[in-house]
Batch of 4 targets.
Target 1
Amino acid sequence: MLSAFAEDFRDAANDKTRLLSRMCKLTDNSLLGLQGMWNIVSGRGKKIIIGTISIMVVVYGGIVVMNSLSSPSTGVGTALAELAPCPDSPNCVSTDASDSAHGIEPLPLADSEQQTVAILASSVSELPGGQSVLTKDNYLHFEFRSPWLRFVDDVEFLVDTDENVVHMRSAARVGRSDLGVNRERLEEIRRRYESALRANVKPEIDEFATIEKSEAEWQRQLTPEQYYVARKHGTERAFTGPNWDNKASGTYLCVCCELPLFSSETKYESGTGWPSFWNPLKKTSVEMQSDDSFFSRRTEVHCRRCKAHLGHVFEDGPDPTGLRYCMNGVAMQFEPTKKESEEAGGEE
């Protein structure tokens, strides 16, 4: 029995030896092939190849050294001096917006802050490689990443309703090293944004028309938060969305199609942290359907024109309807009455 085991062991060892020998021969043949190809290349060609490899090594080595010796700017900026109120943003750059190396002329404001944010998000998202890092109130941070050598363009916006402008700031970087501003990209964003502003002339609302768009079109039009809530039936956290505590007079429009949905006259403080109304502007403005998600039966409310998810309606509201239309603030945009707008303009 031991003899048979020893014989099997020898056969296995011989097989491994033969396999190793074949691998060595293949390696030798490959090296000989490469050497033969190298011998075929002319002297000029060899110099070009060696020079190219040397340049790549020097450039990449320089980038590695530069990254190891440098660090990004730090600190949290104030509203007008710097555009970085965002330690939450993973790639936040915090350079003074008035710095000639990073600053750029501000953009004009749209009709409202919400509309401005929506147009900015759409204009930037349409560019190749653009992705949202953070959208928080009146602050937006986008980045453009290159698959090569860790090149990144950070582009930040601050919507300033006091000055009626959008402050724009950018920093191009490799790893952690600041390389200034990619002004060509910023000017392309400016062209797209201002073109969208000129085209943003409100048509006559046909509330009985149906608006249908592809998911890609909705994503380009809406901010990530708006798309999640309005198109994917999401819910914003209580006390975080826009207009939950707004007491101004005006109309609440669908953020997707601008159909008038609710009036400030039927808005009331429900204590829930979401904008609440006891009646829609018109019965034809919204539609309801049963919602059985989250192991409960509720009644979903959506825009009649574009089917955007708005929220839910409950039977615990005030008189005269006894209903509470509990809406997501991010799914609507507020349009103040003309009187409110004029008074706000006079205060400035």
Note: The first strand starts at residue 103 and ends at 108.
Target 2
Amino acid sequence: MDGACHAILDAVHSSVRDALGKQGAGSRIGVAFSGGVDSTLLATVCDAMGYDVALLTVGFEGSHDVEFARVVASEMSRMRERHHILTIGDTSDFGNAYESVLDVVRTDNLSWIENSVAFYHICRLARIIPVDTVLAANGIDELFCGYDAYRRALCEYGGGGDYNVAGSDAAASDGRNPPAGANSTDYDAAAACGPAQISSGAADVIHEIMRQKIDNELRMMRAIDRVASLCGVSVLQPLLSRRFCRIAYGIPLSEKIRGPRDMYRKHVIRRLASEIGVPRASWQKRKKAMQYGSGIHKAVLRIRKRPAA
């Protein structure tokens, strides 16, 4: 394992221990789990640290997250029997959850609302199991260039390239069709590219985007804390800790994004995941945000389009 991966792995260990405090090895915890590289890496590390990890997946029946999480969990021999799925129910049930979240979050920010609704269902599932502490892998996308905004910034400020290439985050979030090039061969080709030549101007812009996204994520997770309290559950974000952010900021951008046509990004995270035994199906997969993969985004839009009573 190379130095960058070692540094990140050590930071994950330390941040998880700090977040869980007195809950030592053997304690039962939940991990919000989509099967993507971030949540699977966090679950794998927590399991290796000796925690009794329950994988928590929510989504509408047939949604991407539910189906993909099943695939990835089936390849995790130590945790496959501890994978729990809450299939979101009928429209009225979802509408009630939506209203409960709005009463607590009180925002017009669509992303905050969708994420809050998703975590509301995760916390409901946690109470059923039961576990009272859930860890989330929020922070990796922000700190390791997971979002397409980083690639677009590199296109605009770092040497050109068409940022309207097929397969942006929005396209990848449509669960009906697999994104072009979303197979292991294409990921191997992306990972094999040399380090990106990132201009100082582009680096400044990317780091500013990073700071803004971390700030937004911290504020959003405080709102989600209020939602989780409705279920009597604590949601922790160890990968948004100051310790983890400090280590992540120190990882070179070239370890995070390869160039203006890099549709995968987060390369050092994917490399670490492969080193610690995360299933390949997870670490070679492109990003799909939880609200899209679960079907929650479309359900929220349908509710918001309804005429007021």
Note: The longest strand covers residues 52-59.
Target 3
Amino acid sequence: MKRLIIPLLALLLLTGAAQAQKKTTSLKKKGPTSASPQVLATFDGEKITVQDYQEALKTLPAQLQWAIAQNRNLRAKFLDNLVTKKMLVKTAKESGVKEDQEMRRRIEEFKNELILGKYLREKLEHIKVTDQEAKAYYDKHKREFTTPKEVRARHILVKTKEKAEKIYKDLKKGADFTKLAKEYSIDKASAEKGGELGFFTRADMVKPFSDAAFSMKPGEISQPVKTPFGYHVIQVEEVKPPQQKAFKDVKEEIKKQLFQEKQQKAFDKLVAQVKKKWKVETHPEKLDQIFNSK
């Protein structure tokens, strides 16, 4: 496994937003002491607790969270980065860095995002999708959950019809398909495997090829088939009929889809109600001065 590095700057950016609303924790306050298992690190009267660590961890992408959980060195590195970040913040404050207009604007913007997020969660948290709703959707849309017919075939691709016809005749006389594919096919990727293409659906191949392959039975060999790539001699090896996926295999997928649809519908309704509350005037024509000035 390749070594995973967590750059400090990236960590600051990833954890900064989630931690922005938290105040510095001091050992002078009541709470866990440095000897407590809840305290992971201390410096100059400050501490980082298990809760601090867990909250910062939640702000990382899921893949990175998993990697840290699996690797002791990464866990320690993440803690070290949190300590470094807190020391840098403390140093910045002690150096006299003051809030300016841009900082206040960004804080206000972030606060508004938090308020909006909490409001939307409260308004939409009632949304649920039952197993019965999912089953009703499944029964009504079974075609969505049917895997299409698939064919496993191999082919020999050549440039001329004459060459393809010669190969076809040789195969009908009992020539070895694998040997001819390796010797003559210009599709080098499949030629190395004796012309094998594996399973494919009708939509995976160009129409003339699919029309021929999906009209054949296992073991049959086609007459030369012309496509934009040249002339193919095809042999079908196996056919998989369409298969209906069981409800239990797609239930969670359906519930997720229905949940998102319900959520979007509720959000659109909420927006419509808000827009009725106030009279809004917009002047999109004035946007030209922003873009034309560049």
Note: The CA atoms of residues 29 and 119 lie 32 Å apart.
Target 4
Amino acid sequence: MGVMKFVFWSGVIVGLLLVGLLLSTIPSESTEQTSLFESENQRKSITFLLGSDKPGYQYFKLAEEHFLYSPKEKSDELVKTCRSLEDLIQHLNNAKDKKYSTIQVVLHGNPYSGLSIPINQNGQRATPKNLMKAMMNNPLTRLKSNAVDSTTRINFWACGIGKNPFINIALMQFFTLPDGSQPKIYTSPHFVIFKSLPEQAITARLNASYWPYFYKRGYRPGDLEIAQALSAQYPDAEVNWHEAIKKEKPSEEKDAFQNSFHIPVSWVVVYPSKESRPEIKTNAQKLNWVKNQSELMNQVEESNIPLNKFNWTVNKIIHTNKNGEKVPAIKAIGMATVLCVLGETDEV
């Protein structure tokens, strides 16, 4: 198992050669976004909502209202049935010679754990690692030129994904056409908010700057400690940290608020026998085992979250391999929580 994953990370080195070039294409927080909705021709536009709302939340509901009725950003068509990248590509491939000017893709995601959808139906979640792995193994249907060409704009609206170069590299590859040309792909570097404003009849799309704070899952510090840490880490941010971390949803005012989510990493090492597995009874032994797994440390480094911000569970297990054979192994799962304070920007 460990050997297979080492091969994957060796392949990622090839992708890293593209990162320098790609970083220059990642838009900054102040990027002008009007051009993302401009049509260079008379083609129609389409929006895909890749998800549905959990009780108490209205992200997709408000996004639907925005892209149906916004005078400057509305789409001619709206699709709510796709639930994976594969579904999205298949839908575009099934278009009958109907090329689009702009394609809006609304989904959940973040720069740490990637897109909150599977790569293909019933497949793995589109994490940065899985996206890069899929890019090299080519499991997705190839995008055809039925609905897309080099003048089409595809905008991905998910929180901060534009700041992860691996996500950008993979999406650029997945949406490359058979002749090697590519549509103009944008991935939002901001946190994305859809919000009803009292002075506007139409739901607005807002961008938010964000300031992350990491801690071990299940070990949340008190509000005062978090506020002090954020103040020290981001001294130039004009944010009331004490008030922001108490609010979990945007308000009518442009007050900062917080959103929390969990980041998992996992690793399994197979051993030839039960007796060959090292002792991992104490916390020190478990952490030492984790630190000695170079490929697992690569996963942690990829997440950009410090090692000591993960809560580790390390156990001896019986692992079932691809052939159905049960073999002795050790499995580690690390869980970190990201508390992001979000502040709306004037740039929309």
Note: Residues 208-348 form one domain.
